[in-house]
Structure formats: structure tokens, C-alpha cells
What we know:
With 874 residues, the protein is an alpha/beta fold. Among the domains are: 164-177 and 353-459, Methionyl-trna Synthetase, domain 2 (Beta Complex); 195-343, Isoleucyl-tRNA Synthetase, domain 2, CATH 3.90.740.10; 546-719, Isoleucyl-tRNA Synthetase, Domain 1; 808-874, Helix Hairpins (Orthogonal Bundle), CATH 1.10.287. The chain has 27 helices and 31 strands. Helix 21 (667-684) packs antiparallel against helix 22 (689-699). The longest helix has 29 residues, at 845-873.
Amino acid sequence: MEIASKYNPSATEDKWYKYWMDNEFFKSVPDEREPYTIVIPPPNVTGVLHMGHMLNNTIQDILIRRARMMGKNACWVPGTDHASIATEAKVVNKLKGEGINKTDLTRDNFLDHAWEWTDKHGGIILEQLKKLGASCDWDRTCFTLDEERSDAVIKVFIELYEKGLIYRGIRMVNWDPSALTALSDEEVIYKEVESKLYYLRYQIEGSDEFVTIATTRPETILGDTAVCVNPNDDRFKHLKGKRVIVPLINRSIPIIEDEYVDMEFGTGCLKITPSHDINDYEIGMRHNLESIDILNDNGTLSEAAQLYVGKDRFDVREEIEADLQKAGNLVKIENYTNKVGCSERTGAVIEPKLSTQWFLKMQEMASTALDAVMSDEVEFHPKKFKNVYRHWMENVKDWCISRQLWWGHRIPVYYLSNGEFVVAENDEKALAAAKEKTDNAELTMADLKQDEDVLDTWASSWLWPISVFDGFGDDKTEIDYYYPTNDLVTGHDIIFFWVARMIMAGYEFKGKLPFKNVYFTGMVRDKQGRKMSKQLGNSPDPLDLMKQYGADGVRVGMLLCSPAGGDLLFDDSLTEQGRNFANKIWNAFRLVKGWEIDTTIEQPESAKQAIEWFDAKLDQTIETMNSHFDKYRISDALMTVYTVFWQEFSSWYLEAVKPAYQKPLDAATYKATSEFFDKLLRILHPFMPFLSEELWQALEERKEGESIMISDMPTVKGLDLSIIDQFEMLKEGVGGVRTIRKEKNIPIKDALSLSILEGDGFSAKFNAVLSKLANLNELNMVSEKVEGAISFMVRTSEYFVPMDGLIDVDAEIAKLEKELAHQQGFLKGVMKKLGNERFVGSAPEAVVAKEKQKQADAEAKIKTLTDSIANLKK
Length: 874
């Protein structure tokens, strides 16, 4: 195979991905091998690839490719999430653009539009992941709303209901006025905003006296049903049992006492609106207060508000300010910074709202799942996220699982005309249950009405590690083989949304953990530390990056500074560094393949020595890399491979074995070098799949159906660290000679003589390599110092390079004497400071120690300079 002068990813990536797919290398079926299983965190079905997906799926692909090469039955299950709120919002907006309102359609009509949208946009992100090199078993692609997954969700709902864990009740929920649905607490994002604090006065009924309250939401006074003070607040003792008049609507409400009130906040008086604040709701329950819901589902004011009916809540806030001012009830307004809850999906400001919803009891399941993580039965990487997890699980609330949407799993509850209901997985079973419940054989489906709501999207994705293997079906072959899965790679922002709930589901429905390890990726931020977003325009298009730098370049670039759980500060220079690494590998390969091989020439001693060293160095690299993988330090594992190729193989090994200019290479050295390249490509493959396949195929003739991705991962034969240490000594020797060449302007083509006065631990094992890399024409072992030579130390051994005829001795002596004078003057200043008893007695210990270190360094330099001058004068 002819090797092009430059690496062209675009000519490589599609070719090899097709080859892998055609040969079904990603496919997995149960067999006698040890399974290694990963389930993809399912992205939204209508989503597109972003930088977070790039990082997450690169790490998953690295793990799955490595497991495959280690002989395991690697199975990576892909799929997408139906994303109820996000997808329904997109379909609603599309219909609006066509002049159609959701309310004008029947449920079935709307779902036809939703499926059409999903069929058109769904799966785009999975196709984009193929460009990244993701080696998923695409035949296993799942969708949370497909038949198998839907059956699982419905079966689980029924099972949990029958266990008494699911119930229906009126509760204060987080209401999204944009999506028109309830949300769980975990779907609310709190944002710090600049607000206003309004001070309003309420007249005491039957008097001219007023009390003043402070609120950030003046529009909610229309739903006030009490004013509350702390019973320990002496300022308001005289108001006990009295009533006040609500401004503008003149409703009389009681003054009540409750220790919940913070006497330090605002005025110490709190208005109570039970329908629109969770804390007010709880106070209302304790004091048997009326609840007045003044808001419609869409955030406009309802008839119950009496004023501003039909107007948006935020428009009313502006209007009511002026009206309160005019009525004499507005005392003052202050700027106020507070946190406002917003919908994670739509961004709309959340309204607390009393609503009839379905809930799932969480305490018992959470306790089991908490124990699993705290005992490391399920291991978190990094472990710091155990504390975040514990906080969530110890403060868990019942999960509001119903959503007022049409796109999703419809709740399998069927109501009778009298309000009673049955729970069943389909119409046929619901009708049979209803007949039995009512003892009325004449009932028909027309007498039943299924619940209009759907289940929270997470009610399907929490079953993902089980449902993707049809774990709730009759055939247990796959679930018994692949479950529990091995590693989960995900972002820490969904540690409760998804990770915790999957752990709960695993123990609840399978009696064991769903995965052994959870690797939390960091968030991808720009170089200023900002979260990447379309709004900020700071998020590059991953596909554009891959076109520019190649998929391998982007993979490497993102991983080089991506510690587990640590945020990645992304910069294009990272992917450029990844591309440069790909080019480095390509050029090294071209160099090796470009050598002329002569089978008749003998192998040089320098090549034998270099091969022995690199063989040990590669073993050490593999052992270090494996250790990093065991600790889930994926970035460190890559850096280990990166370093050995760039620095050790390219800079040292190839320099040590390459033939002289326009000379051939011996066959034994070429064979060893090719074997090293083969191993390097195999340990590189999980990180850089396309380039490694291209070069591995070109390394020697391959048969159809062969691939680096199903070759064996190299193993360690037996590590001899002494060889590596001895070669490090050689590197120091070469470095010392090269430094002298640089300082004395001696060209590399001019051969030098080197003498070595051995010290403790000296090894001459790699002297042939030393002679070649330092370009020596003579290498001697001596028993005493060499006169008239420049010397340097390598550990305890002194190396001498004679300068006869190479430099102007007088000029060199003058230069060294100038430096000696400088060092002596510096030492004099240091000794003066250390001779000052006041300084030594009063200065911090660290400062004195630093001065003593300066003394030692200066004395060592003076000795070296003095010896060098003496040598040159002899």
C-alpha cells in the first residue's frame, strides 16, 4: 500500500467505518465469552450532536473498543429518548408555524404529527455518532417509546401500583406554564436574578392602623388568605386575633401566628398564598386556610383573581405596581437578588401549583440505592460525587411521575363514570377489570376513559439497562447474559434524574445493581469557563471540527485535558494538538516504511541495545496504561500512550535505529520496529480508531475480514525496570553532550570524543546507543579526571568532552571566569544575609531555608566553574 505524504482523515474515516459495519465487528450475541456491556445515555430523539455528547461517547467508545481487544464480548447498546417535554414543545411550535393549535387537534391527530416529526428528525444524532467512530451494535438501537420499552414501562407502573408504591393525590407541584405540565423537583433549575422587593401595607380591619409585608410577587396578593407573624415577635403581639384587608380587592383575611416566619426578613410580616407557594401551602394546611388559585395553567390570571383576568402574570406585575401606588398601598420598592425556579426544558419561570397528579413513593427504594453506592458496590469515579448522591438520596421526595402531555407513555389508568378507576396494561384487560370491579358484565369501553396524562420521560429511561435487553419480557437469554452492565458514562448533572433512579430500578426489579462503575464526565466549557450554549454562540459544531481536524484529532484533543468529573475548558488548539499527533504518527510510519531493507547486513549493536530498551519501555507503558484504566483515568491513559509515541518511540528509538543517510536497514531491526509499531497502533486504537486501522492495514498484507479492532490488546511479558533506568542514564549523557555542542557552537556533524569517570551505579549497557546519538568517534572509560576537557555530571559519574581544536580556550576561560565572578558575588550577598543574626532569628523558617538552598546551589556552581577553568588551563 502506497503511503500518502500527508494524512487525510476524510479519505480514511468513511472507508474504515463501512468496513467495520460490513464485517459486523460491532455486533454482539450471547456466547461463552465474558460480556462487557455499556448502554448509551439516550440522547433526545430530535437532538443533534453537541460537545458534551462528543466527550461522553468518545469515552464510551474507548472503553468498548479496549474491552473488545481484550477478548470480551463487547456490547454497546445505542438508542434515543422520546423526551416528552422537549419533543412536544418542538411539535407544537412547528404546528403553530403552520397555523395549527394543539387544542384544535385530537390526541391521535397530534400524535401523528409527533411521530412524523420523530421519523424525520429522530436518529440524526446516532448517524452523527458514527462519524465519531462510535462502535455501537446498531442492530440493537432502542427508542424509549418503541414497543418493547413501552411494554416495560406499563408493566412496571402496574407492578409498582399493585405494591402500593404509586398513588394519586392533590399536591403542590412545580408547574411549567409554557409546556403546560407538572415537573419533578429535579427538573427545576434555580437561576439567580435581579428582582424587586415590594413593600405593601395592609390595613388592619376596623382601624386606621396598617401592617407592612414584603414580597417579590405582588400579583399573588390576589390569592392571599392570611397574613402571618412569628409568635415570638413582640412587635406584633397586639395584632393577635385581628384581620387585615387585602389591597385592591378588599378581602378580609386573618392574622395568624407560625414559627416558620423569619423575623429578620422584610418586615417580619408574611403574606400567605397557599395555592402559589409550597411553604405557604404547608402553613395553610396547619391553619386550615382557604386556597385560592389565581393562575390558569398558561400563567395568565384566572377568574378567581377578580382583577387582570386573562392577562399574563408578568404583565400583571407591572400593572399592579402602578395600581398599588395609586391606591396608597405601595410603601417602597428595593432591588433584590433572589433565586427563581425555571423549567429545565423550556426555561419558563415555574409556578407552584396545587394539582392532582400521580406519585411514586421513593424512600424505601432510595435507601437501598444509597447503601449500594456508599458501600462501593456501585463505584463512582471520581468518588467526590458520592456526597452529591447521598444528599439527594437522604432528602428524596416522592416522584411526581405524571405529565400533562400527549407525547409519551399514556398512564394505564381507566376511569369509570363514578370516579373509580382500574389499572391495566391495555383496553381489553382494563374492561375485564372494570367488569369485575363493578360486577357489571354489560360495561363497554365507552364506559371507560383512560387517563389523559403521560408518564415522566425518566419513567422509561430509569429502566434502560434492563429494558434494552427485554428484561421484562419472557425470554431471559439476553438479560441473564448482559445484565448487570459494566460501566456507565454520563454527566454528573443527571446524577439524580437518571443514575440514582436506574440504581433504584436495578435493585427493585432485578434484585441487583444495574452497572458496576459510573464514570462522570465533566462539563465542556469554553476557554473562559462559560458553559457552552447556542445562545452564547460559543459552542462549535462537532461535525465541522471533525471535518477540519479529523475524528481522531477531535477525540484526542478533547481527552487530553478531560479528567473524570472535571470540567473541560475547550479550545480549538486542543483538537489541533490531536491532529498534530495524528500527523506525527503518520510521518513516523512513512519514515519506517520508507527504509530500504538489506537482509545481508549485520544488525548494529546500537540497534540491538535500542530494541532491548524499547521492548521494556513498551511493557512499562502498557502496565501504566492498564493501571490508569483500572482507576478510570482515561485522560491519563491517553497521555501515557501519547508520551511514549511522541517522545520515546519517535524521538529516541527511531533515532537510535535509523540507518545512515541513504543507507539500508538490516532485516532484524526492521522486523523489531514493525512489531513495535504494531503494538503501538493496537494500544492507540481505542483512542484513535481510524488512523490506527489505516496504518495497521498498511503495516503488512492483511486478509479481508482482518481488523485491528478485533486483534489482541498487547500484554506485558515481564517488566525489567533496571533496563529503563539505565537508558534514562544514557539520555542524560546524550543531553549533556548536546548541551556542550549548543553552548560551544559545535555542529552535530563533527564527531566528538567522550570519556567517562565511573561513579556508583554506572552502566555501560547502552554505550553503543550513546555513541550513535551523541555522534562520538571515541568513547573511553577512565579512572581519573581528564585535563583540558569540559565536564558534566550524570548522577555520580563525570563525563569529559575534550575541546582540543574545537574551541578558543582563552575565550572560553574568560567566559567562565566572568560567570564565576558573578556567582561569587551572589554567594557573598547570601552569606551576608545568613550572617545577620537578627534575620536568621526573626525570619520565617521557610525563608531562612530558601537562603540556605541558594548558598548550596551557588557553592556547587562555583565548584563546577572552578574545575572547568582549571581543566582548560592545564
